[in-house]
Amino acid sequence: xxxxxxxxxxxxxxxxxxxxxxxxxxxxxxxxxxxxxxxxxxxxxxxxxxxxxxxxxxxxxxxxxxxxxxxxxxxxxxxxxxxxxxxxxxxxxxxxxxxxxxxxxxxxxxxxxxxxxxxxxxxxxxxxxxxxxxxxxxxxxxxxxxxxxxxxxxxxxxxxxxxxxxxxxxxxxxxxxxxxxxxxxxxxxxxxxxxxxxxxxxxxxxx
Length: 207
Ligand SMILES: [Zn+2]
Known about the structure:
The chain has helices at 49-68, 85-94, 98-127, 135-167, 175-190, 193-201; strands at 11-13, 20-22, 31-33, 40-43, 72-76, 79-83, 170-173. The protein is an alpha+beta fold. The strands form three sheets. It has a three-stranded antiparallel sheet. The two termini are 22 Å apart. The chain binds zinc ion. The site of zinc ion (ZN) has 8 residues, from loops.
């Protein structure tokens, strides 16, 4: 590991054998392994800050689509109805399963919105070579929000399954659902370790 980077780079501890190393500065797609046990220590970023920012903008547009267009159409005996994300959450909130509605609403609408805003904030500043005000808080919030995007995938599936089972209705996915799926993929892609690389790139010490 290069000595030149040592002043800037904090330490990294092997999760498997507790060996301590100076955090290596890796180029894209490079990896660093523990010398004692061979475990993966760190991985270079796959996407540049510019690419991450572009993907964040794409996610913002897809998010608007996901909230504007119906996520599913339901038809039964010649009658058909379409529901947007908001209408679905609203409908759930009026039923007996309000807790599920709350969780669904939170994860499907607010978690991605917050993630997009936080990502845009740190990335716009990183692109200009600055550390965004509140960088640490933003990055920590992003870490906490990460599991929500995984939950989204499950919830969408469960939602469709419930509706299908409940009334033997014909359910077909709308534009909103495709947008939703794309959004989930984008956020998982952007919010992963590539963004975590900003800690080192901007030289902000991790807490
Ligand atoms: Zn090790």
